[in-house]
Amino acid sequence: MPAELQGLTAYELAERIRGGGVSAREATEAALDRIEEVEDDINAFVTRTPEIALEKAGRIDGRLRNGGLNLWECVPMAVKDVLSTRGVRTTCGSRILEDFEPLYDASALVNFGEDRIMVGKTNCDEFAMGSSNENSAYGPVHNPWDLDGVPGGSSGGSAAAVAAGEGWWALGTDTGGSVRQPAALCGIVGLKPTYGRVSRYGLIAFASSLDQIGPMTRDVRDAALLLQAIAGHDPRDSTSANVEVPDYLAGLEDGVSGLRVGVVTELTQNEGISPGVREATEKAARELAAAGAEVGEVSLPHSEYGLPAYYIIAPAEVSSNLARFDGVRYGHRVPAGGVHEMYRATREEGFGDEVKRRIMLGTYSLSSGYYEAYYAQAQKVRTKIIEDFRAAYARYDVLLTPTAPTVAFGIGTKVDDPLEMYAQDICSVPASLAGVPAISVPGGLSDGLPVGVQLMGDHFTEPTLLRAARALEKATGFHFEARPR
Amino acid sequence: MISEEEVRHVADLARLGLTDEEVERMSGQLGAILDSIEKIGELDLDEVQPTANPLNLTNVLRSDEPRRELSREEALSVAPEATEELFTVPRID
Predict the structure, then answer these.
(1) A338 touches chain B (CB under 8 A)
(2) What domains can you pick out in chain A, each with its CATH number?
(3) Which tens digit of pLDDT belongs to each residue from A39-75?
(4) How far apart are the C-alpha atoms of A167 and A113, rounded to whole Å?
(5) A80 carries an active-site annotation
(6) pLDDT tens-digit readout, A214-235
(7) Complex prediction ipTM
(8) Does the residue B63 lie in any domain?
(9) Three-state DSSP class for A276?
(10) Nearest C-alpha of chain B: how many angstroms from A419?
(11) Half-sphere exposure at residue A450, Cβ-oriented, CA atoms within 13 angstroms
């Protein structure tokens, strides 16, 4: 890709295209060339769609002459392969959907626009379950900063595609941290909106009470622009919120003077947080204070119960949601003499280890005799965690924690220990359980690898959250640079 | 640890085939995961209401009006096996 285009954010590129400095087609060709150049090393895409991208880019260039184009429509994008795309195969990183072509588009994509320039579908952990992208049936994704390292997960392909400059931005999905943690590990920005802010219609469900689609971008302004493109109420998703969508770019640059920022003690001082990550978080707090924020410490007393509650609730919803993959209506089928054997054999062959583990865990915790002790108790813990947040937001506008406890780890180093892998989510699951918006912003390097710091806001306060994140990004002097160089 | 017998029972509930080797591995792994999540049992939450949805949405309604949805032909087009009118499955046992 020409360095001139590679050096732009999505917002800057869109303005350049709208100003006539470069065509959408040229930008798209540049993205496709970069994909060609680095994909053998990165494996960020399960399916590439260059023909669609070029055709749509042509339409955008045609529409440019008439005006009325939304800024975001000019910029090519990558889409996580759990979002349904009509006529374009959607695998969810699973063998069971290897040849599945959805019959409709996800609402978030429809909102973005009919002429979206989609360069491809990105790799991910199978059905978005994982924190390293190693649970994909289409091979691991390699972290652009260290090709032997994981990109995080489950939106590892989207994160790596953005970090590698295979385009300017991507959509991911976040259930317990799957946008934020890979964004942190790949040195980009990742936003999980408020639960209900973005329609889940057409997002192939993992855990319905937690799933949200979110932007993965080069900077905070790009995240605001991409959220603007996808947010909104949708009658097709009964859990989508009928709340007006504000202008996420207005006020973005207003700074943090007087903003109250609470550093969450339990999640910053936790022994599982590596020293480099803790240092980056504390540095971010100092930088926000220097930029005019009122920074203090705050407690989320039940946060240590977040991870166990999450690993009951999410698998329980998995065991229900993934019952639909039974070889009857879509996807893979293993022929058998009777229907029960067909179900069992189809699911045995179609699902990978982590998905099987979560189906088992969820089925177990929902089964007779265990329901009260596990699922019902976890739902009550969820209430306590929401109460913790409510108390914290009475005193603070935004909360600060690390995004992930470590920087990128080596491919293969944690695959045999599910518990160690689950611990990656310790800082990200509380916001998921409470349904509040949270964003990961690059917070410098540790051991030469990117560290993410997380800011969390109250329900539907994305404008405040984005403004704080923007101020932090400016204070850290962060500047996106595609890797490998 | 949960017993291999229990693993097989849960797998049967989930209509999930597992190899003997998977059953053995799952027994150890699920046991370890369950040990770690049992931590939530420490909390006394008898008086606490459960949360199923973070926005506390209840009974979202819409008017019952017909609209264009997938045709039968479209819906059947992605099935592993179908006739012109129906999904087909092996014998119900």
Answers:
(1) yes
(2) 3-253 (3.90.1300.10)
(3) 999 999 999 999 999 999 999 999 998 888 999 999 9
(4) 18
(5) yes
(6) 999 999 999 999 999 999 999 9
(7) 0.96
(8) no
(9) helix
(10) 7
(11) 34
